[in-house]
Automatic annotation (TrEMBL):
Transmembrane segments: none annotated. This is GmrSD restriction endonucleases C-terminal domain-containing protein. It comes from the Eukaryota. PANTHER family: AMP-DEPENDENT SYNTHETASE_LIGASE DOMAIN-CONTAINING PROTEIN-RELATED, SECRETED PROTEIN. Keywords: Signal. Residues 1-18 form the signal peptide. Residues 105-200 form the GmrSD restriction endonucleases C-terminal domain. InterPro entries: GmrSD_C. Pfam families: GmrSD_C.
Length: 206
């Protein structure tokens, strides 16, 4: 009986010291089968930069409710034990970055990444959208477009597509590709042949 209790205690200690569980994922991540179907439906073409891009063309971090804007809403959604001030700024909490597996306890170390970067959207078709649609895209909480991640990892990604940049954790390739495809499918954005090839390879890791 004592040995059983000891084993149970050791198991409990092991659980506490284990790698933190990932935070809840954004909504709308499709199954692998659906992601492959969506990928097949996307328009593949040579992607050229039409020029004229500016982040200001995608109004972002708009007010969601009360004093909370989109960034603050995602920080609360994806963090653990998040405490906010009267102005909705996160004053404490824990954030797990699925791109690289890092855990942070300061909101200043966390960026909100656009899964499909704003400039990539611009050159993939968003240059023809209305400002209202670009605003929706930049603040979309209904698709897997917004992710709380390590700030310098987000900066390393910049506006690159999966054929040029992939998250440091290969174990996240599957979810990353499914999310990228879901966003492009939701907004009928085009992809390049190299982008499709990279996404296909990533989906094959699922």
């Amino acid at each position: 009986m004592k040995s059983y209790i000891l084993a149970s205690l050791l198991a409990a200690v092991g659980t506490v010291s284990a790698v933190p569980m990932p935070a809840p994922a954004p909504p709308g991540i499709p199954s692998t089968a659906n992601a492959k179907t969506q990928l097949a439906a996307l328009t593949v073409k040579t992607i050229t930069d039409p020029g004229g891009y500016s982040r200001d063309l995608f109004p972002h971090w708009n007010t969601v409710s009360g004093a909370c804007n989109t960034r603050e809403t995602v920080l609360k959604r994806d963090g653990t034990n998040v405490v906010v001030s009267s102005t909705c700024a996160a004053t404490s909490g824990t954030w797990f970055s699925p791109y690289d597996g890092a855990t942070w306890t300061a909101a200043s170390d966390v960026d909100i990444d656009h899964m499909v970067p704003l400039k990539n959207a611009w050159i993939s078709g968003a240059n023809t959208w209305t400002t209202a649609k670009r605003t929706q895209f930049a603040n979309d909480l209904n698709t897997p477009q917004l992710w709380a991640v390590t700030d310098n990892v987000n900066q390393a990604k910049s506006d690159q597509s999966p054929d040029s940049w992939k998250p440091p954790l290969t174990s996240f390739y599957c979810t990353y590709a499914k999310s990228w495809v879901a966003v492009k499918y939701a907004y009928a954005l085009a992809i390049s042949s190299a982008e499709k090839s990279a996404l296909t390879s990533m989906l094959n890791t699922c």
